[in-house]
């Protein structure tokens, strides 16, 4: 009788261990990106971004050059000298030079030398450069205009290896690349429900993207914009694991009682 009780308790403990293992498992279908891409329709078109759209409060650097550089100088902001380490501006000691930036006003305009107020909102970098080049050509022959958005940053939070806010130098940033900057998802990140939060025209909008679906390439949220926030939700295994860890002391106490009881009954 005592032997049967001891065997039963050992069986119960074994079942508990097996159940804990099974609930912590993550299937392959939950972690592989772009599943079935090779079987997708051949006409599957990647949502190629047309470039970042300029928004209010963006910071832009704009440079104008021309074969006759002196003629282009009035269309450039003065270059600011940055102090060397350990020096001060009062001493007039400067190190590297830095371009001044244009702040996009709430009404979507910038104040540009000579030209005055220029509407920049909802234009991409190339469109604004073409607009300025066309206007400057009334004063300067063959002007070349370069525009950069210098405050392009995104935040990646949740179940990633290196969450944080990242400054982006490129004009294009896809969701997978942003996740790569954050060290990729952990094994516990929910790949089928990645949240992207975006502000458009002063309103918050969002979308949930399934990274296991090849058609995610067609989503307008696949390419990120300035100040987007990406959140990776933990999957069920991670939630259960966190709950298990919080109650680990309780489980250990119960197991200790069962083992002690088994020893007493089998004596």
Explain what the structure shows.
By secondary structure, the protein is α+β, with helices and mostly antiparallel strands. The chain has 3 domains: 2-25 and 247-265, no CATH class; 28-50 and 152-234, Outer membrane lipoprotein wza domain like (Outer membrane lipoprotein wza fold like), CATH 3.10.560.10; 59-149, wza like domain (wza like fold, 2-Layer Sandwich). Helix content is 28%, strand content 22%. The protein is built from 6 helices and 12 strands. The chain has helices at residues 2-23, 69-72, 125-136, 175-181, 236-246, 248-265, and strands at 59-65, 80-83, 94-98, 102-103, 109-112, 116-119, 144-149, 153-158, 164-167, 194-200, 203-209, 229-232. A 5-stranded mixed sheet has the order 9-8-12-10-11, with helices on one face. Strand 5 (109-112) and strand 6 (116-119) form a beta hairpin. Mean pLDDT is 79; it is low at 18-26 and 87-94. Pfam families: Poly_export (PF02563), SLBB_2 (PF22461). It is a multi-pass membrane protein. Residues 153-232 form the SLBB domain. One of its GO terms (molecular function) is polysaccharide transmembrane transporter activity.
